[in-house]
Amino acid sequence: MTKLLDVRDLTVRFAMPRKGLFGPRPLLEAVRSVSFTLEKGRALGIVGESGSGKTTTAMAAIRLTEAASGQVLFEGEDLLALPDEEMRAHRRNVQLIFQDPYSSLNPRARVIDIVREPMDLMEMGTMEERNARVRDLFKLVGLRPDQLNLFPHQFSGGQRQRISIARALTTNPKLLVCDEPVSALDVAIQAQILNLLARLKDELGLSYLLISHDLGVVRHVCDDVAVMYLGKIVEHASRSALFDSAQHPYTQALLSAAPSLARRKSKGYVRPLKISGDPPSPINPPPGCAFADRCPRAQDICREVQPDLEDKGPTRVACHFPGPIAA
Amino acid sequence: MTDTPDYKAESPAREAWRMFRRNVPALVGVVILSFIVLATLYGTFFYAGDPYNVVWAPHERPGVTPEFPLGTDYLGRDILAGMLTGGGPTLAVGAAAAAITMVIGITLGSLAGFYGGWVDNLLMRITEFFQVLPALLFAMVLVTLFSPSLWTIAIAIGVVSWPQTARLTRAEFLRIKELEYVTAARAIGARNKRIIWKVILPNAMPPLIVSATLTIGIAILFEAGLSFLGLGDPNVMSWGLMIGANRDYILDAWWPVTFPGLAIFFTVFAVSLIGDGLNDAFNPKLRER
Amino acid sequence: MNSSYILRRVGYGLVLMLGVVVLNFLLIRLAPGDPAMVIAGEMGGATEEMLESIREEYGLNKPLVVQLGIYVGNVLQGNLGESFFFNQPVASLIAQRIGPTILLVITAQILSILIGVFLGVIAARKPNGVMSGFVSVFATIGYAVPVFWTGIMLIILFASVFPIFPVEGMQSVRLRGADVFTKTLDIAHHLILPAFTLAIIYLAQYARLSRASMLEVLGSDYIRTARAKGAAEKTVLFKHALRNAALPILTVAGLQFGNLISGALLVETVFNWPGMGRLAFDSILRRDYPTIMGVLFFASAMVVVANILTDISYRWADPRLRGKS
Amino acid sequence: MTALLDITDLKVTFNTRYGQVTALDGVSLHVNAGETLGVVGESGCGKSITALATMGLIPMPPGRIAGGSIRLAGEELVGASPARMRAMRGADIAMIFQEPMTSLNPVFTVGDQIAEAIMLHQKVSADRAFKDAVALLDRVGIPSPADRARDYPHQLSGGMRQRVMIAMAVSCRPKVLIADEPTTALDVTVQAQIFDLLNEIQRDFGAAIVLITHDMGAISEMADRVAVMYAGRIIEEATADDVLDFPQHPYARGLIDCIPALGREEHALKEIPGVVPPLHLLGAGCAFAERCEHANDRCRQEKPLLVNHDHHPAACHAVEEGRI
Amino acid sequence: EGGTLVIGSTQVPRHLNGAVQSGIATAVPSTQIFASPLRYDENWEPQPYLAESWEVSDDGLSVTLNLVQNATFHDGEPVTSEDVAFSIMTTKENHPFQSMFAPVETIETPDAHTAVIKLSQPHPALLLALSPALAPVIPKHIFGDGQDVKSHPANAAPVGSGPFMLDEFTAGEAIILKKNPNFFIDGRPKLDEIIIRIVQDPSALLIAMENGEADIYPFMAGSQEIKRLEKSDHLTITDEGYAAVGPINWLAFNTKSEKLSDVRVRQAIAYATDRDFITNALHRGVSTQQRGPIIESSPFFDDTIEAYDVDLDKANALMAEAGFADGMELTIDFIPGPREQQQSVAEYLKSQLKKIGIDLTVRAAPDFPTWAGRVGGHDFELTMDVVFNWGDPVIGVHRTYLCSNIRQGVIWSNTQSYCNEEVDEILNAAAIEQDADKRKELYSRFQQIIAQDVPIYFVNATPYHTAYDNRLMNPPKGIWGTMHPMDRLEWSE
Ligand SMILES: Nc1ncnc2c1ncn2[C@@H]1O[C@H](COP(=O)(O)OP(=O)(O)OP(=O)(O)O)[C@@H](O)[C@H]1O
Ligand SMILES: Nc1ncnc2c1ncn2[C@@H]1O[C@H](COP(=O)(O)OP(=O)(O)OP(=O)(O)O)[C@@H](O)[C@H]1O
Ligand SMILES: [Mg+2]
Ligand SMILES: [Mg+2]
């Protein structure tokens, strides 16, 4: 297997507005030294709570957000070091699908133009060829060619997400970054899109970087899963390893919090692991493990020393005291 | 499948127009404005008269002499002729000033909103600076400095009113910049220029068009105010000038100030009805998704 | 509220004012007219020697930068120079007039906000009702009427048809010796027409704005929450909604202040109100540069102060801006 | 046994630019004391309108309750005087909303907002009410409640705000608590906290809860009984186990099979094609017919009624005819 | 109780010291505050004021003033001959009317109450120049402190010896004067207080007059104002009292400009202009026509001069003769101010001169300085202007026509650049001619020549009127109107 994407020590900081007259600008560390790899033809899911830095990680990895440091090797080439114009040329290899189907399409453009635009920008083929390809893509994602000339607001959310996907596929990308592709959709529609994504992955041999806060979605689509907490990956493993034998208490908390059809009130289900509170602020994150304050297993060391992401048993985990849920 | 009802491929602009057409006050505005514009453009064709000529005794009441339906002013000049010729400059200054306002405001606002950082900081400080100067006073100074002509007036009005447009544009850019379709454009390799002009600006247009409409109204009032104070172009008949010129005689003759005042009022009124109509037409809350 | 914010706000205001000083100076010195000629003209004609001595006397023959330096230095010391026209310091000219302008502007502001917001709230209660329609129409009309024309129409009306309000000036000279109470009443009487004329256009805008803002707030989730608690409609309207709807009104009130001063300029001219606006107008006609600069300076300062007050009160009114305590 | 809250044949219409549309078309529901009723359905199917109608908060106009009855502990709420409704709201029946971010008034402290709810229904001093509010904040698990009571909503996290909303809702110990998608805006770990809190509250206060959600997982964890809504109608209603394990209506089946939820073996997601039709395009037949693989001509012409079948009530001709 | 008199004024004074500032605005308050050597009655006859008597030497080169003994300034200091000498010399140096005291060489002060003015040449205009409006006696102990008198701080807070003293001065708004209890004329002034209210908007002033907010409105020139106040029962309107002012509204030509250097063009324009229409229609009959450089109410006016009554044929013929049969383009300026007098005439000319093929552009100046710059800089073709005679022609008339007074950059000099040596000779002779008849003769010739050369087309006398409350006794109707001490004014009852 070949590495498509190799992200090393990626760090992203945002400067916040100054407090006080001459105070320094506080820095928000949205992504803190994150490393992961993605192999060709596989799907990596990134899960985590809101604000944990999922989107930022993905955006920095494809250089749509500026990284403070780190490397992003795409097929061995460091994207972050490329000159602007070369990066532009590289964009055809990496495409994006967004969360909000309502704001991800330019409301003033016809969908045919939206889907064709990447080809226009890359100056691929003749106009007829481009339009023909748009037609093909429309069929591929399950839209009708007679809808080509409509405007985005004339489509439903699910259909818009299909248009987004068609646009993303236009340039035959190798990597598709999907940022919460279904979380704005109704469950019934979610299934349509997830199935479509799964189908495309197989048919076109795509690799996915899929972001979601819904473990169910990730489990359904991804081969590997990384769990983020406050800008760091706290656990990274194959799907089965992660869902069956999670080692990090935060992953376990996520799993126990996710609603499941198997847990019935009628059967007197009581959540086994309760964690309290909210994640700490990404401005001045704590020196030790970010989860320590909410963690049932936390000891003094957790508050002082940041655990590294290491192979520990079934998963790679960043925890001083990894292990299965204590009974 | 019912998921896409049989829509026509209707562009947002067309849809806005459809909404606009249903808006009765806005249509009233269009009718009034068209009437005024036509009257100022072609009125002299039907009613020839030199507004500068002293043609009759001063202060003839309206309706007394058939030749001068609106009476005469303090010099004995025909008020109707003045109304018909005076509208052109007033409207022209309004439109030109609005255009200048929009050009400066949109340029600076979009640069500030798009690039952010120090560009934004610098441009916004300049904007704030201009907002601190009381507009009319500043315009008066400018007009006197560069001697009154239609152009200087239009430029002065533009120079004092752009900050609002700049702020609006900036706000729109800031809002739209964060939307995912802009990221999408960048993700497919669009350059900044294209993103500004082809992606963000068209989407920022609706509020800007509304604001442009309102700016025309404000500019007309501004021009009238300046002319009223005697800072207008004295060789160009305008409604404001008529009011200013006849103002000393209001106790004897109400009509030479009343008619031009009404004309200004109706013009601005019509323009703002249209502006409101456009605002409603562009407002997505008022139409279905 | 944190005083560092206020400090920073005031500091920034001072920087803006310095900018105003420089800009005004430069702009006005670029004027084509020769100020020496003005002074000479007012004295009834002058010889070349006389012009030269005037230039000498007023420092008009020095290089621009030197003049600017001197001017900025003087302003920093509170000295706005001598009027070219009046044989008096600009500061004392303005001191005589700033009071009436502030009185007029503040009265108009208060009038327009009170009446405007009241109308707006009433209208928002029934968005499709008669009152609502009236407010919309009235707002559009109020916005479209040239303020000086309103003034003139009111003068025509109240000078000849119903002479119940004085139509010019701020005080009756005859009441010079009268007691404070009578004088106050007299000023109030004189204030009615100008203040109302100035207020009308902003009143309309506030009515429209508060209607829109109330409608928006009334559609928000927390209003639904208040109703779900069982709060009475009046409480919902005036306690829960108005506090929030007031925020955009406050913003506009601050931004509007500059326009209000511009409007006051016209109104003062129409009603012969002895304020800064008329002084500015007269000074422009006389090319009395120091006075123009002084008036611009003070008018801008008033806007800066108004903006600072707005910002501070906005932070006071909107806890979201106060930051964690 | 008469239900605590009993809605029968509720009909709500709206005047829209397409003319009058029927948002609720004969909805019947009941909740018993101490019970949790889950209401599920896709966006726009009328869940919130049902809740708002119960609270007497339908915006009128454009809305109108066109028929049916809502009884709370036997008292008819449809047509009750506004004053009576006000007295009831917050005291006997309370509601928490979907968006904790916007449901609290940003310019008042949370303590004041809770205290207001108390004072609206109980004759207590402001001081007393505020103290009660602090106690309630403590009860819903907010740390250092006395300080937090003086905070403004923006100073609290989403989860905390939802706790505040819950505290406010239970401040007068209502008989019925309607929770309209109380956790959709929250993270899963926080959602779990809120669900646990709701369960505790129910245990302690004995309130009946109507939990509106589109999440079947939440239903499974929280609900005793479930009503499935589609396009303004209840299409299936039974105990949670019955609906989850033996869904009858094709829509209910689809809804369960399309979720990529945990706790189930790998399965291919079932798709429900199309979208919920807009209300003004609803025809005479079953609203789901267009999306239903089992639909026949009858389905397209005649609205199925919610009647008991083999297992439990469902509104489907195909089920009735035994085609599925 | 003498009561209060409220004077309404549209004119804004820069300050209150008439010794260094010309113009009505300053003169009205200045003549109340400062006394002067002489004052004048309605018949142009000098009357004692600070000087109880005076003699002119036979050679006309010396004038002796014998001052009253009991005059004091408002601060209690006595008025001495030193003060008179200081005042006249200060005025000579600083007042814009240079010809007024130009021949004064020295002033001797043999004792505290005698001042002897020594002249370099006979100067018949001198006695008129000793009027209150032109020769205020200012206190040497205040103004003689070495500061430049033109910008002396005391100009805004003056101390004089006149019937009233300054109480309050709000620049541009009001001047409040109160009775001088130690005025050197017994029993005067009658009034307790004079308030000069400045109301720049004439309509507003009208209303004030009608409502009784103001009692007297001098220098009222607008036809609507005059017509309107005439209808008011409690007011009297008169045009008396302006004889010495001699305000002439005229159309000046730049005789050095290409097209207008031809006298025939100027004559054509004169013939094309309908003075009748202007005074009767434009000014609604309130203006009187003016045919020459000396105001028609002056004893020096010669009514036999060519009046240029309207004659379009003749005008067209003259244009053709001058080679402009096809017409020409010209620009006209006008002095900013009340528009009825100048601007409206300019605009009337625009339509009238079309009839003789002249396409006239009205060039407005936004403000006085701009206009003054153009006209003073000789950068104009035609301009409407209003210029005062100021009593004696030497003071107000000569300046406009002397070759020696063509001065770049100086407004109200000979801005027409008109130069006729014969005129210069006549005027110089008239300046020193002591015999009244001979002087009149000289001025007649002068007027005839000007009428032929048309450096200026005279339109009308600015129709100054005074409106005052009927109950006012002894309203100011002398030759200087309200630029004259109002110590005799009182309320009836
Ligand atoms: N442009 C920005 N400026 C400042 N802070 C930002 C910016 N973008 C993101 N952040 C902050 O960075 C952190 C990570 O944000 P990010 O959007 O990556 O989170 P996420 O995991 O995608 O969350 P969500 O699930 O809500 O989408 C958050 O605290 C966020 O507030
Ligand atoms: N004010 C209104 N005017 C017109 N139609 C309305 C109005 N409010 C709601 N509706 C319609 O009533 C229907 C039911 O809306 P409701 O809010 O109850 O849906 P919901 O099931 O709560 O959906 P969601 O999951 O999105 O909250 C929708 O189709 C909506 O379009
Ligand atoms: Mg995200
Ligand atoms: Mg809902």
From TrEMBL, chain A:
UniProt xrefs under InterPro entries: AAA+_ATPase, ABC_transp_ATP-bind, ABC_transporter-like_ATP-bd, ABC_transporter-like_CS, Oligopep_ABC_C, P-loop_NTPase
One GO-annotated biological process of the protein: peptide transport
GO molecular function, one term: ATP hydrolysis activity
A Pfam entry, by short name: oligo_HPY
Keyword Cell wall biogenesis/degradation annotated: no
Record membrane topology: Peripheral membrane protein
Keyword vocabulary terms for this entry: ATP-binding, Nucleotide-binding, Transport
Main location per the UniProt record: membrane
ABC transporter domain residues: 7-255
Subcellular location: Cell inner membrane
Stretches of the chain forming a coiled coil according to its record: none
PROSITE patterns from the UniProt entry: ABC_TRANSPORTER_1, ABC_TRANSPORTER_2
GO cellular component: plasma membrane
Domain of life: Bacteria
Family: Belongs to the ABC transporter superfamily.
Stated name of the protein: ATP-binding cassette domain-containing protein
Organism, scientific name: Aquicoccus porphyridii
Phylogenetic placement of the source organism: Bacteria, Pseudomonadati, Pseudomonadota, Alphaproteobacteria, Rhodobacterales
Automatic annotation (TrEMBL), chain B:
Domain ABC transmembrane type-1 per the UniProt entry, residue ranges: 87-275
Keyword Cell inner membrane applies: no
Presence of keyword Transferase: no
A Pfam family: BPD_transp_1
Top-level taxon in the UniProt lineage: Bacteria
Membrane topology: Multi-pass membrane protein
GO biological process: peptide transport; protein transport; transmembrane transport
Cellular localization per UniProt: Cell membrane
Keyword annotations: Cell membrane, Membrane, Peptide transport, Protein transport, Transmembrane, Transmembrane helix, Transport
Membrane-crossing segments per the record: 24-48, 91-115, 136-160, 208-232, 253-275
Main location class: membrane
Similarity comment: Belongs to the binding-protein-dependent transport system permease family.
Protein name per UniProt: ABC transporter permease
Protein source organism: Aquicoccus porphyridii
From TrEMBL, chain C:
CDD domains with a match to the protein in the record: TM_PBP2
Entry protein name: ABC transporter permease
Protein location: Cell membrane
Annotated ABC transmembrane type-1 domain residues: 98-314
Family (UniProt): Belongs to the binding-protein-dependent transport system permease family.
Cellular component GO terms, alphabetical: plasma membrane
Residue spans crossing the bilayer: 12-31, 102-122, 134-167, 187-204, 247-271, 291-314
Membrane-protein topology: Multi-pass membrane protein
Classification via InterPro entries: BPD_transp_1_N, MetI-like, MetI-like_sf
Biological process according to GO: transmembrane transport
The keyword Protein biosynthesis is assigned to this record: no
Keyword field: Cell membrane, Membrane, Transmembrane, Transmembrane helix, Transport
Tagged with keyword Transport: yes
Domain of life the protein comes from: Bacteria
UniProtKB/TrEMBL annotation, chain D:
Matching SUPFAM superfamilies: P-loop containing nucleoside triphosphate hydrolases
Example GO molecular function: ATP hydrolysis activity
Domain of life per record: Bacteria
InterPro entries: AAA+_ATPase (IPR003593), ABC_Ni/Peptide_Import (IPR050388), ABC_transporter-like_ATP-bd (IPR003439), ABC_transporter-like_CS (IPR017871), Oligopep_ABC_C (IPR013563), P-loop_NTPase (IPR027417)
Gene3D superfamilies named among the record's database cross-references: P-loop containing nucleotide triphosphate hydrolases (3.40.50.300)
Compartment annotation: Cell inner membrane
GO cellular component, one term: plasma membrane
Membrane association type: Peripheral membrane protein
Signal peptide feature range: none
Matching Pfam families: ABC_tran, oligo_HPY
GO biological process: peptide transport; transmembrane transport
Family: Belongs to the ABC transporter superfamily.
UniProt protein name: ABC transporter ATP-binding protein
Lineage, opening ranks: Bacteria, Pseudomonadati, Pseudomonadota, Alphaproteobacteria, Rhodobacterales
